[in-house]
Amino acid sequence: MTSPADAQDRYYAGVPMVPFDLVKELVVALVGVGLLVVILAAAFSAPDVPAVTIASWAHADPVDFVTTATAELQGTSGTAQYGPPYNTTPDAAQAVGPIVPQEWAGVSTPIDTAQDFVLHPLALAATGNASLTAALSVYNSAGVTQQQAWLDAYTTALGSATADNGAVVVASGDYGPVPVLMANLLGVARTGGLDALLLQNGRFYQTDLTLPLLFLGDGNYLATLAADQHLSGDQWGVMNETGNYPGQTWLWLYSIWYQVPPFNSAPNADLVIVGIVITLTVLLALVPFIPVLRDIPRWIPVHRLIWRKYYRGDP
Amino acid sequence: MSDLPQVPEAEPGNWTLSIRRFIERRIPLAHLLPSRQPYWVGSWVYVFGAVAIAALVMVIATGVVLVFFGPQWWHVSDAGHFVNAMHFWSVQVFFVFMVLHLWGQYFAAGWRDGRAPTWAVGVVIFAVSVVATFTGYIAQQNFDAQWIAINAKDAMNAVGVGAFFNVLNFGQMYGLHVMFFPILVVTLVAVHVVLVRVKGVVKPLEAPEAEPPTEQEPQP
Predict the structure, then answer these.
(1) Count of the separate structural domains present in chain A
(2) Which of A97, A213, B100, B104 could pair covalently with B168 via S-S, beta carbons 3.0-4.6 A apart?
(3) Which of A110, A104, A181 is nearest to A147 (CA)?
């Protein structure tokens, strides 16, 4: 009875076999790669630009911080209008025709930007702070229309706001308690308190950075720093690293679609591009069965370089 | 005539013997660790896969050191930063040689004579390695990690996996990166190598005995 193992022997029947040491080859490769990696690490090190904190953001660009926090309170920020998995904003999810995968799992990480990013942290910070307690009380007891009027006016004023000694200065107007809320939020943020308050959930150990990352992402500060480091999406950002280091260069086939029309302006670009890349990957796996793709190696004689000895007829 | 050891006869109902017999019939040690190869194997193209495996060993070794000291260590220690740099460059070398190996096998049409599963598993290794490395980039706890996570969430959410694969959740990404993906990649590489050894290296293109690509070998 023959076995699959015999099939290999039959496959090589009549082929001259030469001595070969697989283990030695692997050990030599390991030593070589080890040395190469030590040399590269010693010569070039590796990137490690410190993370931006809410505190460093509030110090570096208080106007952007307050503008972002106001948008969170008003419900106009990117996160507030994101749709699933954070909230139920209608028509926000990316779709291809009737296919809307973003909605399949529903709102799995519910986020109320006004409460989670502004009002809840302020309520925690209000202990012993009479003016903040009063401002929160005025804001929370006002009607939605009044709140929106204050926020609309304050948002407009922020367009020409300036930073003065760590405080945000706007033209005088009827903003209700909003300036007090924002001044306090900025103050807490600058001490580092908001970094902690955004993670406060009643449990001791924290490993989920969803809230502070979304808050940072809603502002312009982080994006400006990223653009300075050539990391924006239209700069092939997903495959770049800070500094001049190689990044995830193997993502070129994913990143390339974001650089060209119609994908670079399509509202559903992420969904379409991920679909394209998954399709291309499946096609690559199925190359052995796809005519033309599987025949190219016969037409382009790279194999004559690979097996020079064989084609010379030189066993 | 094969000089392989005698394969034991099956004892009905003995699962252990059935598995042993399955393995011995497909991959005897002489094929798993060969000491002789066809003369055409003496090409640099065959080195790419071995170097990729060596780089993967370095990735795992440096990763074990990093995980042993915890995710903060390499940000505050020169030694840790150096080990992280080795981890970083090991990954770069791993991908360079994995891609060279892929192109080498493409132009060799390495899937011929029943080797399509080996090729397909190789493509899966590449795809899984991309995701594994991605989780590493977003578990770095630095500016790159922040920026990549904030941007990548949109693609994950758009395709509906954000609910289960939250790139903004450091704990989830770190756990996947140091445990789940290394096990998956190493397992897939082991399967790939065993498949290579089961079939042996493919004959050169246009070799007279080469079988059609999709033809399966005869079953016992």
Answers:
(1) 2
(2) A213
(3) A181
